[in-house]
Amino acid sequence: MADKRSPGKRIVELCKTYSIDRQTLAERSDLDPELIRRIEEEDLIPDLAPLIKISRALGVRLGTLMDDQEQLGPVITRAGTAGARPRFITGLPSGSPGHDHQGLSFKSLAADKGGRHMEPFIVDIESDAEQEKSSHEGEEFIYVLSGRLSIEYGMESYELEPGDSVYYDSIVPHRVLAAGAKPARIVAVIYSPA
C-alpha cells in the first residue's frame, strides 16, 4: 500500500470516509478505474490533471491530497531547503522503461500550508523527459530558473530561456519539456479554484 502521506493513501481514506467506491470515483472524475487503482495501490503519481480531477470529484482541494501538515500561518521555505524531497515525480524518459530516473521532479515550496489553493513547486525537468499533454481546471505560472524550456499549449509551441515566464489557463491541453540536451529548472505555481 502507498505511503501514509501519499495522494493514493489520502484518496483511499477520503473514499472510505465518503463511502465512494473506485468505480464511482472513476465515473465522477472521468478517469480509468485502473489508473485510480494504480494511484491508490501502487503509489503511482500521475501528472497533476488526474489528481485535480480526483480532488474535484471528492469535493476537496488539490492540497488535501498532497498535504503533510495543516499550518494555518505563513509557510517559509529557506534557501537550500526548497523541496528537500520530491512531492512527486512524473514524465518517464523517452523510450527508457526501467530507467533509473524519471523526467519531472516536483519539489513543493509550501507543503505544510493548510487551506491553500495554489501549489508552488520547483520542478527539475530531465532533457529526455516525456509526458502527455494534460488539461485541468485552474491556471499555471512558470518562471524559468535554468536551462531552456519548451511549452506546448494547444496547437502552439513556445521556447523560454532563464528569466522568462509564462502564465496560462490550464484547461487548454499543455505540456512542459526541457528544450535541447540539458535539463531545465523552473518555478511552477498551479492555481486550482475551490
Care to describe what's here?
It is a single chain. By secondary structure, the protein is an alpha+beta fold. Helix content is 24%, strand content 27%. The chain has helices spanning 7-18, 22-29, 33-42, 48-58, 62-66; strands spanning 88-90, 104-108, 118-125, 139-146, 149-153, 156-160, 165-169, 174-178, 184-191. The protein is globular.
List the helices and strands and how they pair.
Blueprint: H1 7-18, H2 22-29, H3 33-42, H4 48-58, H5 62-66, E1 88-90, E2 104-108, E3 118-125, E4 139-146, E5 149-153, E6 156-160, E7 165-169, E8 174-178, E9 184-191
Antiparallel strand pairs: 1-2, 2-3, 3-9, 4-7, 4-9, 5-6, 5-8
Helix pairs in contact: 1-3, 1-4, 2-4
**How helix-rich are the residues, as a percent range?**
10-25%
Name of the CATH superfamily of the largest domain:
Jelly Rolls
* The first-level CATH class name of the largest domain: Mainly Beta
Number of domains: 2
Enumerate how many helices there are, as a single number.
5
The first-to-last residue Cα distance is 29 Å
Task: Kindly report the CATH topology of the largest domain.
Answer: Jelly Rolls
Give the radius of gyration: 16 Å
CATH architecture of the largest domain: Sandwich
**% residues in beta strands:** 25-35%
Rounded mean pLDDT score:
81
**Extended strand count:** 9
Uncertain regions: pLDDT < 50 for 5+ in a row? 93-97
